[in-house]
Predict the structure of Putative dehydrogenase.
Amino acid sequence: MNDRPVYSAAVIGCGTGGMLSVRALAASERFRLVAACDLRADVRDKLAAEYPGIRTYADHRELLADVSAAAGTDHAIDVVCVSTYAPTHEEIALAALATRPRGLLVEKPLGDTAAAGRRIVDAVTRSGTPLAVPHGLLARPTSLEILRRVRAGDIGEVRLVEIECAGWDIINAGIHWFQYAVNLLVADPFAGVLATCDTSSRTFRDGMRVETEAVTYAWTRGGARVVLHSGDHVAQSRPGKDTLFRVVGTDGLVEFWGWENGYRIVAGSGPADVGPFPDADRSPHQVHLEELARQIDEGSPGHGPGHSPDHSPDYTVADTSLRALELCEAAYLSHRHRCVVTFPLSEFVLPEFVPPGASDWDPGTPYPGEGGGRDGRRLEAR
Ligand SMILES: NC(=O)c1ccc[n+]([C@@H]2O[C@H](COP(=O)([O-])OP(=O)(O)OC[C@H]3O[C@@H](n4cnc5c(N)ncnc54)[C@H](O)[C@@H]3O)[C@@H](O)[C@H]2O)c1
């Protein structure tokens, strides 16, 4: 029997990502879905038909005005989920936070820029509100088992993380893969990124202009490499696998395929195919939301044994999501300015920082013997 508190919840933006929260809230005994909003009337009609009794709104402002009005009453909304496109997350998440919810979910990417994401995380942290950022790879048995095995040293020290991701881009899907890479290399901060994008198809996705195809190459202070080949169409190294994740260590390697249930490991005792595992009984969004509920429980005065009045929420997932967002932004900045982008990213994007200007230097063409430049046979030490 569920004797734990049940939290009322509302979802803002009910497209693909928002419906993952809607379904998770409806499936969980920790939550009661009470309200949802979407700009589109057809989405609202579908929600009203599927979840009779919930209140629907056409705009986040209307919903949040009601949330504010209900604060402190029996109709208070405890948890707000922000599932619109990344460029609107900052405005909506900060407005949601101003209603003083007991917990907040903000979809990845936290913002369209790392600075926007940072402002959300800073404000949430200052308020002490528990925050969920639903990165699926941190809530799925396959990727969690790989993380555990890599951290236990089963393939030695991670030296290379290679990702192929077709049908997607750096900011919308790459953020998941980078966030996982940050977790694999957790004690080894990123030092730099060099990336280039083909933009010929003028592709946009999820409210962002994105690449047709791109290669992002990132390296850590400890010398590990992360390479992401992303884009509308990406040549597959394993036929049939649109997403491939290969983690190469000093003593072996692991390969898995994004959201599939199983992996291949080549380690001490030779190659082994592990899985496929049966589907988990909870979706990744439900796992993240129930962890949010647990953190709200812990911070609630008088809630059961183990309650600590000064308990701080755990912002680890939000922090690693921000580090991943920095990698995404660094990749796009590297392409935009045709240069290496180094960390901390905040220094690179300072107003007074001047990125290298457009250059007429055309590598791969003969050097005419005049016109300046640097003699690459006489490099000075850095
Ligand atoms: N964590 C995950 O696994 C996962 C999966 C899918 C999408 N997402 C994320 O969810 C977010 C949304 O992407 P999507 O794929 O759901 O896009 P989508 O186009 O399917 O849905 C976005 C919805 O938000 C609505 N909307 C936009 N602004 C609004 C506002 N001010 N008020 C109310 N509704 C508003 C739109 O009408 C639309 O229905 C993105 O950040 C995306 O990266 C996360």
In short: The pocket of nicotinamide-adenine-dinucleotide is lined by residues 12-18, 20, 37-40, 43, 59-60, 83-86, 88, 107-108, 134, 136, 172, 206 (CB under 6 Å). The chain is about 35% helix and 25% strand. Residues 7-134 form a domain with the Rossmann fold fold (CATH 3.40.50.720). The first helix runs from residue 16 to 27.
